[in-house]
Design goal:
5 strands; 2 domains; alpha+beta; 171 residues; 434 Repressor (Amino-terminal Domain); single chain
C-alpha cells in the first residue's frame, strides 16, 4: 500500500534531498521527516503547501497519491485527435446557484466561425448576475486556433469576485 510517508520519501529522493535538508527547509527536525517517511506520524497540515512546493508536486499527490493532470496540454501532432471528434464544453455557475452547461462539437464551432454565425446566446437569470452574456466575452476563434494547434483541456477558467464561475474546456 502506498502511504503518505512513502510518497514523501519518494518525492524527496527524486529531488536529491536528504532528510535533514528537507527538514531544514521546512523548519522541522530531521527526526520529524524520518517519522513521516516511516509512517509513524504525518506532517502538520500547515506544512503541506510548502512541502508541496519544495517537492514539486501537488498536495493531492502527497496526501492521496493522485497525480494532477495539467490543466491544458498541447499535444504533439501525432497524438492529436481528429478535431471533428472533440467537444467544446462551457460551464457557467453563478454564485446565486444557477448552472448552465453548453456542449458543442468543435466541428460546429469551426463552421460557425467560418460562416460568421453568432455563437449561442445564453439568456437566463445568470446573465443578469454576471452583468452580460456569459459567452460574449469568450473569443471562440482564438479557442479554435488553440485547439487546431493541439491544445486540449481546461482552456478558460474564470472566477469573478462575487463567486461566478465560467469554464471552457475541450475534450
Amino acid at each position: 500500500m502506498d502511504t503518505i510517508g512513502k510518497r514523501i520519501s519518494e518525492y524527496r529522493k527524486k529531488k536529491n534531498l536528504k532528510q535533514d535538508e528537507l527538514a531544514e527547509m521546512l523548519g522541522v527536525s530531521p527526526q520529524a521527516v524520518s517519522k513521516w517517511e516511516n509512517d509513524l506520524s504525518c506532517p502538520d497540515i500547515s506544512l503541506l503547501p510548502e512541502l508541496s512546493r519544495i517537492l514539486g508536486v501537488s498536495i493531492d499527490e502527497i496526501v492521496q497519491g493522485k497525480k494532477e493532470e495539467p490543466i491544458v496540454s498541447v499535444l504533439p501532432e501525432e497524438q492529436r485527435k481528429d478535431i471533428d471528434k472533440l467537444m467544446l464544453r462551457v460551464i457557467i455557475e453563478s454564485a446565486g446557484g444557477d448552472h448552465v452547461r453548453v456542449n458543442l462539437p468543435v466541428a460546429l464551432v469551426k463552421v460557425a466561425i467560418e460562416t460568421g454565425m453568432a455563437m449561442p446566446n445564453i439568456n437566463s437569470k445568470i446573465n443578469d448576475k454576471l452583468g452580460e452574456d456569459a459567452l460574449s466575452s469568450i473569443d471562440f476563434a482564438q479557442i479554435l486556433k488553440m485547439v487546431e494547434l493541439g491544445a486540449i483541456g481546461n482552456l478558460v477558467d474564470i472566477e469573478s469576485a462575487n463567486g461566478d464561475i465560467v469554464k471552457v474546456f475541450v475534450e
